[in-house]
Task: inverse folding
């Protein structure tokens, strides 16, 4: 009997970035920091100074929106919930929709103002609805950043206005962008080019021009301040490939859009999504020793798809590693093996194979029942 894989969990290896921190040969970006990440796996396809802390400007609002969607998921309020603007929210400078103290709008309207026009007053209304005050909300932002593994980020406000100790990195912004995009309703707002509020008297135009002009664009958020320069977290999907491109510290708005377009074009041109093939025809039940059944069927869940360079899809291979047998009792879901996925000898990851059902250990009484059943010609599971 072979006992193995106790405590194993599926782990998918990230492809090692081949390019230096200076970037890929031939890929010219007009920004200080950048990253290209696949949305669902978190695999980094390109990076340049991706861990340099910088002011994130209104890209900060990605975290504000993420906590808002979490609050709605928890039932704290709904899209039709009416929110009132506080004196503090109305005092925000920069981009805004000029909310008056006491003015009321629904959560849906405030989300539209925040997503499309990057309104600072609207963002603070959301922050206060979630946490009661912007200060309390900022604590939640920093806690969520730690939870997401944003190691080089610290927030001082919910809007992204320049402030001491308010910074993030391209890598961290990509992480929180991916977390926000896990909510399907996000693209209902982030892909809108033009809209209006207050019965049509307040026009909203998306600050992210890629939403209108880039094929497959799904969002996400622009940012501009004196301290940050022009920044952008841009997301797009074509076929099954979803990408997030972050550009920080461009001198002009045109440069940030050009940088993210270059990153996205590079990703879509050079990478594809690959799903490991099914194992249904390769797996055979594992023999069970001293159990009420002779064998146990197997179950597995295919891992999330992962990313490979175009032209290398056929180099994927899978090796099934199973226990030769297993001693009863066997618990449902018990680990019995794993599948190792490789590309040209390099392990990309692995995922577990488990018992599909439980198998009890045979005792004297059950053994006698099986024996007499066999003598009498009755079919038993053993």
Result:
């Amino acid at each position: 009997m072979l006992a193995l894989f106790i405590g194993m969990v599926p782990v998918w290896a990230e492809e090692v970035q081949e390019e230096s921190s200076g970037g890929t040969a031939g890929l010219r970006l007009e920004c200080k920091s950048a990253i290209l990440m696949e949305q669902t796996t978190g695999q980094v396809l390109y990076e340049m100074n991706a861990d340099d802390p910088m002011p994130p400007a209104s890209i900060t609002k990605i975290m504000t929106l993420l906590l808002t969607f979490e609050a709605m998921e928890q039932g704290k309020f709904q899209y039709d919930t009416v929110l009132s603007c506080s004196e503090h929210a109305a005092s925000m400078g920069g981009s805004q929709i000029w909310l008056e103290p006491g003015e009321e709008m629904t959560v849906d309207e405030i989300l539209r103002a925040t997503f499309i026009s990057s309104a600072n007053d609207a963002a603070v209304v959301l922050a206060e609805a979630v946490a009661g005050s912007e200060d309390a909300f900022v604590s939640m932002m920093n806690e969520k950043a730690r939870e997401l593994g944003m190691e080089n980020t610290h927030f001082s406000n919910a809007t992204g206005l320049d402030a001491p100790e308010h910074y993030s990195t391209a890598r961290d912004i990509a992480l929180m962008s991916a977390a926000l995009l896990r909510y399907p309703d996000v693209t209902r707002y982030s892909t809108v080019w033009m809209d209006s509020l207050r019965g049509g008297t307040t026009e909203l135009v998306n600050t992210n021009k890629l939403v209108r002009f880039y094929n497959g664009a799904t969002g996400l958020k622009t940012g501009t301040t004196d301290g940050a320069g022009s920044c952008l977290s841009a997301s797009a999907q074509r076929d099954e490939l979803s990408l997030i491109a972050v550009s920080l510290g461009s001198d002009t708005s045109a440069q940030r859009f050009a940088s993210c377009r270059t990153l996205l074009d590079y990703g879509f041109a050079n990478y594809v999504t690959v799903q490991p093939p099914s194992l249904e025809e390769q797996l055979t039940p594992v023999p069970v020793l001293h159990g009420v059944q002779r064998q146990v069927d197997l179950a597995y869940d295919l891992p999330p798809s992962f990313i490979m360079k175009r032209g290398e899809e056929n180099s994927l291979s899978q090796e099934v590693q199973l226990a030769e047998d297993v001693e009863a009792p066997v618990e449902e879901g018990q680990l019995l093996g794993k599948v190792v996925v490789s590309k040209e000898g390099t392990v990309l990851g692995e995922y577990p194979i488990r018992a599909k059902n439980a198998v009890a250990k045979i005792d004297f009484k059950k053994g006698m029942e099986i024996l007499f059943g066999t003598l009498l010609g009755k079919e038993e599971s053993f």
Q: What stands out?
A: The two ends are 19 Å apart (CA to CA).
